Amino acid sequence: MSDATTVTPSNTSGGQTIRPDEAAHFGKLAKDWWDPKGSSAMLHRLNPVRLGFLREAIDLHWGGEIEARRPLAGKSALDVGCGAGLLCEPLARLGADVTGVDAAPENTAAAALHAEGAGLHIRYMAGEIGDLDIGRFDLVTAMEVIEHVADKRAFVAALAARLAPDGLMVLSTPNRTPQSRVLMIGAAEGFGLIPKGTHHWDDFITPEELGELLAEAGLTMGEPRGIAFRPDKGLHLSADLSLNYVVTARPV
């Protein structure tokens, strides 16, 4: 079963990261989140690519067996900006004790309901990540999230504060390039592949900028991998960072 939990706020927040308008935008999408042909269709296409990168990073970080079905058994995982649980559920199936946090209560409610139907025990909660007294985790993920937060420095610091000393962090986000402006906003939102208003190009962050924020938080960023698109391959991992990229980070 899933476990939607209310927790007591702590006093560790260095700054508020939630934008109410962003939370409201994604909250309105909650009912369609698990529909692979609905408003979150692009996330369904993106998720296998992110999971491929994540699985490799997990195996390299903990020295696991590539063939192991549950490489996260005995480990805890936190997914921040979890939406309705598209990443939380695969992490649970990989063996992790999973917590999902999102800014929109509508999303965590939908996530809890879906996890319960799938027979998965996942703790979900809504709120400001820096205000939640939830301890530390072996794995912390934030996929397609940092471009939506109000205070990126405070957000990265809050993620770092939730990471265990020998833990692994994985983040993905659009890059701020002319290509991403044309394709991810102009084309993707213009043709209805992504709901209008999902992205604001000025909020995209470059790998160099993200690396600096991670360093300030006491983390070392790994080599970024691009998430690119080709008509014959669809979304795939690539050396091309111009649209979107995914990175690991570890405590120094």
TrEMBL record:
Gene Ontology terms for molecular function: 2-polyprenyl-6-hydroxyphenol methylase activity; 3-demethylubiquinol 3-O-methyltransferase activity
Entry keyword Hydrolase: no
Catalytic activity: a 3-(all-trans-polyprenyl)benzene-1,2-diol + S-adenosyl-L-methionine = a 2-methoxy-6-(all-trans-polyprenyl)phenol + S-adenosyl-L-homocysteine + H(+); a 3-demethylubiquinol + S-adenosyl-L-methionine = a ubiquinol + S-adenosyl-L-homocysteine + H(+)
Pathway: Cofactor biosynthesis; ubiquinone biosynthesis
Ligand binding (S-adenosyl-L-methionine): 50, 81, 102, 143
Gene: ubiG
Its EC number(s): 2.1.1.222, 2.1.1.64
Listed Polar residues bias regions: 1-16
Keyword vocabulary terms for this entry: Methyltransferase, S-adenosyl-L-methionine, Transferase, Ubiquinone biosynthesis
Family classification: Belongs to the methyltransferase superfamily. UbiG/COQ3 family.
Designated name of the protein: Ubiquinone biosynthesis O-methyltransferase
GO biological process, one term: methylation
The protein's role, per its UniProt record: O-methyltransferase that catalyzes the 2 O-methylation steps in the ubiquinone biosynthetic pathway.
Region named Disordered: 1-20
